[in-house]
Amino acid sequence: MSDAATTPRLQPRYRRVLLKLSGESLAGEGDYGISPSMVGQLAGEIRDAHRLGTELALVVGGGNIFRGLKAADMGMDRATGDYMGMLATVLNSLAVQDSLEKLDVPTRVLSALEIREVAEPYIRRRATRHLEKGRVVIFAAGTGNPFFTTDTAASLRAVEIGADVIMKATRVDGVYDADPEKVAGARRFESLTHFEVLERGLRVMDTTAISLCMENEMPIIVFDVTRPGNIVRAIAGEAIGTIVGGEGRADAR
Question: What is the mean pLDDT of residues 32-51?
Answer without folding.
Answer: 95
